[in-house]
User: What shape does this take?
Amino acid sequence: MAARRKLEMKMTSELPLSAATARCRNCGGQELDWITRHMAMSVPEDYPLSGDMAVTVCRDCHFVGNHSPSGHDAYADYYTRFNKHQTRTDALHDLDHAYFTGVLDMVEREAGIGWAQTDVLDWGSGALLFSGLASQRGARSAHNYDLTKAYPDLDYGLIASTHCIEHVLDFNAEFRRIHGVLGKDGLFVIAVPDLRGYADVYWGPYAAFDLEHINHFEITSLSDALIRAGFEIVATRESDRLVTPTLAYPEVVILARKTEQAPAPATLSSSRPEPEAVLARYLERAEMDMGTMTATVLDTLRDYESRGVAVSAGIYGVASYAFRLIHILATEHDFHCAWIADSDARLTDKRLDQVPIRDFEGFRAWTAECAAKGVRCLVFVAAVNAVRIDAFLKERFGDSIDICVLPPDCQNRSAAG
Ligand SMILES: [Zn+2]
Assistant: This one.
């Protein structure tokens, strides 16, 4: 606790606006520790999600959640209009294929399943792979549900939700809905990122504490939520999901069964460290990286200045990392980007810290203007996929622009740092 209090002191600013009415999304408790108090971010104008974000730990159930004033409608709007769906082909598709095969194997091994009598529903994973693989195993039917897709009214025998519920504001309501859609003794297999494993994987300034990943489950809190919704725990697994051939995300997978009686408390064992310990380490690291990121921007600008090189500095690629960085630079250092750009056309012309966001062509035009004026275009990259953005820009602009990648991309950094 001492470590946590120290972190809180260092990261202190005012509480977010929503603090007074905030409740634990897991148990409804009102006693929340605001462990970061405030992780304010600048977001584009008309953006559905508020950047007024903070992270809390519930004193009753120890659930870790991100809080902001954004409600259900704001998130629904965001996932309808702004979610960045990644098309996963080739090696990434093969990884997903192996992953979903493993989930189905777990269901067969731990619960046994008569596929010919089983209707299957994939609840929001976004990929169609799970339902396809269930069909191959002989499922009577297999359907997919996401925000924009309805599903047939059946007594489902198996519902799977992989890496989805961590995004859902009212996950208790979603669990009750899943319970209602399942037939008698229906199975629910759920996988979410595991808070207990974060410190082994995430090395960025924000990583999981962004605007999208708002529920930070681990084996105990996830089991509790499932039991409260009317499930009994059949099996649990703490594992790593390979999202690229070299990057694994820690996850907890729980296979649960719908029950009409009061579910029995689960006997759980974990091979991972206590959430308290891992969270303190993680927050410390997050703050350090955020500081490094900010200092690198300021040092780089000073270096150009000392060499007498005129620059036009900005950021290419804007999501939570960049939103946070832009906020800190603006409020603590009175630095504002000369330009901001992102390949996502949905952000084009929206203002961020008063600067209109350019699309790729708009950015290309800006680089040409810089060249004409004898000004060096300096690109800071602060994103989870920083390495990809760096490669994208290098391929198109070569040495005609300067690129500074901040921080070391958390997804491509070894645990050794
Ligand atoms: Zn709670």
Summary: The first strand starts at residue 32 and ends at 34. The pocket of zinc ion is lined by residues 24, 26-27, 29, 58, 60-61, 63 (CB under 6 Å). Residues 115 and 136 are 10 Å apart (CA to CA).
